[in-house]
Structures are given as structure tokens and as C-alpha cells.
Amino acid sequence: MPNPMTAEELLLQARAHLDRVDPRRADELRRSGAWLVDIRPQANRDEEGDIPGALPIERIVLEWRLDPAGEHRLPGLTAGTRVVVVCNEGYASSLAARDLQRLGLWATDLIGGFRAWKAAGLPVVPAP
User: Fold this and answer.
1) What pLDDT, in 10s, does the model give residues 56-101?
2) Can you tell me whether residue 29 is helix, strand or coil?
3) pLDDT number for residue 76
4) Residue 3, class by beta-carbon neighbours within 10 Å (0-12 exposed, 13-18 middle, 19+ buried)?
5) What percentage of the chain has pLDDT greater than the value 70?
6) Quick one: which of 75, 103, 98 has its CA closest to 87?
7) Count of Cβ atoms closer than 10 Å to residue 15 Cβ
8) pLDDT band at 127 (very low <50, low <70, confident <90, very high)
9) Which residues of 94-126 are buried (b: 16+ CB within 10 A; e: fewer)?
10) Residue 6, C-beta contacts closer than 8 angstroms, at least 6 positions apart
11) Which residues pair with 107 in a beta bridge?
12) Cα–Cα dist 36/84, whole Å
């Protein structure tokens, strides 16, 4: 394979194309109609809770559910849908947001992930 990259290099490359948002800005975007997409595994959501109104879409199916031109896309998704991706701490979400941009969406991710959202005192639906 020519020119392999490290995971850290992939992350830096992805973030170079993102206008990443802090928890307060993510909340503003959510309130103005952007989709918050939570890619954390179910086990994390069960343990830590959820962001109210966030769409849980595990990473393994993300591109299929958020491809504006795909037959498996979520109802209501259009090429104009704005997406903020949330993971645990803001690493996997950067890579996922970059991939969503490649599908033509306006996408970014939450700096610090769900844990930063919770630490900022923003609303959380407690784990059962």
C-alpha cells in the first residue's frame, strides 16, 4: 500500500476539513434544525445516557443512513441537512463527519463528544 498513514495522521487530515463545534454551538445548531447524530455504541448510551433529540446511528451503518442519494437514507434527510456527529470524546466523530462530507452533506463534529456535552451542563436523558 503506497504512503500508509497513522491513525493520528488520518484524524488530523479529517479535522483539516471540519469546522468543529463546542457543546454550546452544537446545541445552537440543534435548536436551529441541525441533526445531532450519536454514533456511540448502544452500550455507551445505555451506561451514560443520551442527548435529547439526537439520532442514534451506529458507525457501521452511518453512510447508508445519511447518504442523501441512497435508498436506505433516513426519512427527511436531504442534501441540505446539517449534521453534527457525536461520539464519546470527539475522535471517531471527526472521521465520521469527514466521510459524511464526502457524501455531500454539511457535516462536522462535537469537540469532546458526549462527555463534553454533559460536562457543559447541557441536557442529557439519563441512562435507564
Assistant:
1) 999 999 999 999 999 999 999 999 999 999 999 999 999 999 999 9
2) helix
3) 95
4) exposed
5) 99
6) 98
7) 19
8) confident
9) bbbbbbbbebebbbbbbbbbbbbbbeeebeeee
10) none
11) 83
12) 5
36 half-sphere exposure, CB direction, 13 A CA radius: 27
Residue 101's nearest CA partner among 25, 16, 39 is 16
CATH architecture group of domain 25-119: 3-Layer(aba) Sandwich (3.40)
Q: What is the model's pLDDT at position 2?
A: 78
- What whole-number distance in Å separates Cα of residue 98 and Cα of residue 79? 15
56, burial (CB in 10 Å: exposed 0-12, middle 13-18, buried 19+): middle
